[in-house]
Design brief:
about 400 residues, globular, amino-acid biosynthesis, 11 helices, alpha+beta, single chain, six-stranded mixed beta sheet, ArgJ-like_dom_sf, nine-stranded mixed beta sheet
Length: about 400
């Protein structure tokens, strides 16, 4: 399937506008946006996937209730406070929805709230009462609107994360756009921290939810920075249908094409998140091929990018392939490692380091050059089947400890 990258992020699809403002939640950072608003021109089919953490943010509880009918028209997001474990959390999230509804002239039940930041801190409505009307007045259906929203949801991210692609469905040009945030507290099993997708494709709510839940296991659940699953992980998609394609109401060729497009944009966003991991100097992608089954392929690739020992080795530009093999070996499952082969590659070249679970002669000097690049690919050929999978992670650096040692200050 052919895709075309386009500008505009979440405002690239037809029918969406966004904004970002500073409302005072991050009181010590008056120069930083801390409130984002995303608004659709029409009531949209919508779906969400959330954290698997038993401790979850209050906005997630409200989202689930508001998405019962499969529709939404706006998303409001704050950074600086997770609204988790706060006594008034749910009531405050609901009040935020009412403020958005009033500002936009839509039902409060069609608003989906989300929060990110420090856990367990008290929250008050005052910043939202100031910021929501300001954001509503600033809404823009252009690239700047998307960028402002993407900037407003950042916490320890070093750069904004947004992306959009176009593709064909039913003879019509459709677009999917995304923004996301998350550099730490990211682990497999719904590890986005926060991500928001918009599309102008026409998809009924049931198939939109199914498509999202089909894509997440092979993308966001394959990403890790630090093995800590956030309390607020949220991935929401809204579909306006304004592209004019025949509505997808069954699992046909158009549905498969839509899933493929979602997969493409999700893979891009996962690489963005992992590559910007807290303190990271490298993006690590592990690609497993010829595994006995999909479950094993996914598990092995996750083990490699989650290995603290291998992550530290990449930081030190040390091609310590034994740590890769070790991570493969402790992966749960019934499979053989006898035919495992491993390559390390980057823009600087490729080195073959392990053949049939044993050392393959290579140049340490060449390997160090390969590992000096930002994007590192670990290719694992298991030699026992036809299944394949990818996972995304980053190296482990001194700065990760520094960032998390004073996160609240």
């Amino acid at each position: 399937m052919q895709y075309k990258e386009v500008e505009g992020g979440i405002c690239a699809p037809k029918g969406f506008a966004a904004a970002g403002v500073h409302c005072g939640i991050r009181a010590n950072h008056s120069e930083k946006y801390d409130l984002a608003l995303i608004k659709a021109d029409v009531r949209c089919a919508a779906a969400g996937v959330y954290t698997t953490n038993k401790v979850c943010g209050a906005p997630i509880k409200v989202d689930r209730a508001h998405l019962t009918d499969g529709y939404a028209q706006a998303i409001v997001v704050n950074s600086g406070n997770a609204n988790t474990c706060a006594a008034n959390g749910v009531a405050l999230a609901e009040e935020c929805c009412e403020l958005v509804g009033k500002a936009l002239g839509i039902a409060a039940e069609d608003v989906l709230p989300s929060s990110t930041g420090v856990i367990g801190q008290p929250m008050v409505i005052d910043p939202f009462a100031r910021g929501i009307p300001a954001a509503a007045a600033k809404l823009a259906a252009d690239a700047q609107g998307s960028t402002d929203a993407a900037t407003a949801i950042m916490t320890t991210d070093t750069h904004k994360k947004e992306y959009a692609i176009q593709f064909e469905l039913g003879g019509k040009t459709c677009t999917v756009g995304a923004i996301g945030k998350g550099s730490g507290m990211i682990a497999p099993n719904m590890a986005t921290m926060l991500a928001f997708y918009t599309t102008d494709a026409a998809v009924c709510p049931a198939l939109l939810e199914k498509a999202l839940k089909t894509v997440v296991p092979g993308t966001y659940n394959q990403m890790s920075v630090d093995l800590d699953t956030s309390t607020n992980d949220t991935l929401i998609i809204m579909a306006s249908g304004l592209a004019g394609n025949p509505e997808i109401t069954e699992e046909n060729a158009d549905y498969n094409a839509f899933v493929a497009a979602l997969t493409a944009i999700a893979e891009h966003m996962c690489a963005e998140h992992a590559g910007d991991g807290e303190g990271a100097t490298h993006l690590i992608t592990c690609e497993v091929t010829h595994a006995p089954d999909l479950k094993t392929a996914r598990a092995v690739s996750r083990s490699v990018v989650c290995s603290n020992l291998f992550k530290a080795a990449v930081f030190g530009r040390d091609a310590n392939w034994g740590r890769i093999l070790c991570a493969i070996g402790y992966t749960p499952g019934d499979f053989s490692i006898d035919k495992v082969c491993v390559w390390l590659s980057s823009a600087a070249g490729k080195v073959y380091v392990c053949e049939n679970a044993a050392y393959h002669p290579y140049s340490e000097e060449e390997a160090a050059k390969v590992l000096a690049e930002h994007d590192i690919l670990v290719k694992v050929d298991m030699g026992t089947g036809d299944a394949s999978a990818k996972a995304w992670g980053c190296d482990l650096t001194y700065d990760y400890v520094k960032i998390n040692g004073d996160y609240r200050t």
